[in-house]
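Practice problem: AraC family transcriptional regulator
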Amino acid sequence: MSGKGVESAGARGGFVVDSTVPGAGARGFAVFRRGWQTQVGDEFPLPTFSSATTGDFRVRSRVAKVRDAALTDLASASVVRTAGTPHGYDDQVRMYVVRRGEWWLRRSSDRVEYTVPAGEFLLRHGPPLHFGAAADTTVRILTLPSATLAPRLRNRSMTGSADSAEMRLLMAHTNMVHATVTDLGASGVHAAHTALIELAKAVVAGRFDDAEPSLGIALAQAARELADRRLADPGLSPAMLARELNVSVRTLQRAFTAAGESVTAYIRHRRLAQARLALADPARRPTVSEIAARWQFADSSHFIREFKKRYGQTPADYARSTRAQNFGG
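Answer key — structure tokens:
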């Protein structure tokens, strides 16, 4: 487990646990609970877990607290099942985003109330429910402030695709929070929390308020993550990213400009980085034309020109120097 101290006001904290490594399973739950108690605190009490779960807690998990919100990623190699819900914690908003496997919630041990399959999310307002999943399940759980979101949900639940434009923005922001939470100062905590709540509201409303200035960072991050998955796609462009994220191209460009880079420049730089990795791969030696085609450069000349501008060497020179280093030349 790793973690850092929280602010004196208890505004944020985070930790990581991996009890899937050999020999860690027996201690896994104790390590997870200790991390939760020290970095997240009693404001978010843990439920009681079944003895089978605590005795074989083989999971990879990362947890972040941002003021009155908590984000938990759980990739379980063992069964997860609760045996009791927290006391004195009857009013909450929770979102379950399932990427793999299936997540279920019950009012009692014998009645399934909700089932959330892979690729979908459930957003719910109300008292805690028993929850669980079979092994090989990956889920992100967001515990959110009810004062802000409950009036919008009105004691109802909603489900939808985990790949909707609004969900992509929310998931990109939570990825960023996980990566930075232990290093954030007071202003960073405030900005992260504000964007988190606004993006959760966007999921409820089914639309993203592109005039909200606090969401620009989350929008740019979501676009980067989407672009990284589509780098080899010939159709990748600012227009395609804007369409996938349900915003205007102008809004997307404005979010990137605030970070000091255009959308087009980001795509070009990431493709060049992938090309550079291919040139350094000792297992194979692709030609310059093959790499240019793979990463969607107009032709070899264009690729060579952009590569040299970025790295100060031609692709051929870089490949030769890399091979020389690999073989001690």
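Discussion: Residues 213-261 form one domain. Students who identified this feature from the tokens alone can consider the problem solved.
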